[in-house]
Amino acid sequence: MRNNGTGRTGRALRRGVALGLALVAVWGVSLTADLSGAGHRLAALGEEPALAVSLLAARLGELPDQKRGLTGWSRLLLDGSPLLAAGEEAVLARSQDGDEPQPSPPDTPEPEDHDDEEPPDLQPSDSGEDIIEMTGQGKEGSLYLSDGGVYVYNRAGWELDSSLLKEGTVDVSPGEGPQILIVHTHGSEAYSMSDGDLYEESDPYRTTDCTHNIVRVGEEMATVFRAYGFQVIHDTTLCDYPAYNGAYDRSKAVVEQWLEQYPTIQVVLDVHRDALVGGDGEIYKMVSTEAGQKVAQVMIVLGTDAGGSEHPRWKDNMAFALLLQRNLVKGYTSLARPIVLRAGRYNQHLSPGSILVEVGGHGNTLSEAIAGARLWADNAARTLLELKP
């Protein structure tokens, strides 16, 4: 394990060096450039919205469609920007889950879902001191779409409005035979050991021990669905081990195999856990309090065709996800994080009832994740019963 104190010292040193280099750059430019109009140009920067956005990007990392409008003095000041405070959206922007790539610009779409080339670089904490609790909630405006208390966070790289949430058709009708398939593209994803739930790591916050990783969470969900009478296939293949790269290709083959064997499958759940890290390395855990119990929040991630890959029925997947979410927000105070739209497909083009489900983050404990997953599955099962012919 790496020491968090050492990591923070290293980050501070790197920022100091970067600031020093920026000041040297300013001095060098001042020796060679005509600065007679500099005062007016610097004053004009205060009215340039793109500068504020880019200053945030310098602190929190590159975000879609940022920095493009800055040149000259704006760029020079950006390179020497001070530390900036980060709110909830900044944390979300720093989400390091390998499941979620930053969408490509519209003119250079990705042909496939190359979102798992490298695993997220997570730095373990020896205790819970650096783990910060937060509750993810939607809000009006910005990148959020809303309808009837359901929020969708648009990170697909498109300009969209809430009328989109009226589109699509729920094409899920569970009948006889296996109806639900649960898979894990990143099956080795695990949780914080801060509550004493110890396991042997294959990588930070990852383990091949399926009693302690996301596979355990998937089995708890399967148990809930079976209690409602559904036939569930839970595939426990660790598609991200021993190689993280190519995990979505391997999980695609797993899903295709089961769909071919059982055409009765109506719902495909790819169950993950998220990873949220702040600018100074702090770890965030997503929590909700339900009936006096602290549980992990659950988030649905929806793929689209914004990345250039064929996905003609993604709006039907969205309609299904919205139905699940609407019922969830009726029954629980804050169990649901906003649905997230992404540019990649995440294999959701294989079946109209396919969604990616993130249960908590790496700062949550396994017990919190299990509790949140069981509540989510209970809501989903009751919703699916209503869809039975």
Verbal overview:
With 389 residues, this protein is α/β, with parallel strands linked by helices. The protein folds into two domains: 4-84, no CATH class; 131-387, Zn-dependent exopeptidases (Aminopeptidase). Helices cover 34% and strands 15% of the residues. The protein has nine helices and eleven strands. The chain has helices at residues 4-32, 38-45, 49-60, 72-79, 88-93, 214-227, 247-261, 314-331, 366-387; strands at 131-134, 144-147, 150-155, 180-183, 232-234, 267-274, 283-290, 293-296, 298-303, 339-342, 354-361. The strands form two sheets. An eight-stranded mixed β-sheet has the order 2-3-10-9-11-6-4-5, sandwiched between helices. The chain has a three-stranded mixed β-sheet with strand order 1-7-8. Strand 7 and strand 8 form a beta hairpin. Helix 6 packs parallel to helix 9 and helix 8 (314-331) packs across helix 9 (366-387). The radius of gyration is 22 Å and the shape is globular. Residues 1-8 and 55-114 have low confidence and may be disordered.
Topology of helices and strands:
Elements: H1 4-32, H2 38-45, H3 49-60, H4 72-79, H5 88-93, E1 131-134, E2 144-147, E3 150-155, E4 180-183, H6 214-227, E5 232-234, H7 247-261, E6 267-274, E7 283-290, E8 293-296, E9 298-303, H8 314-331, E10 339-342, E11 354-361, H9 366-387
Parallel strand pairs: 1-7, 3-10, 4-5, 4-6, 6-11, 9-10
Antiparallel strand pairs: 2-3, 7-8, 9-11
Helix pairs in contact: 3-4, 6-9, 8-9
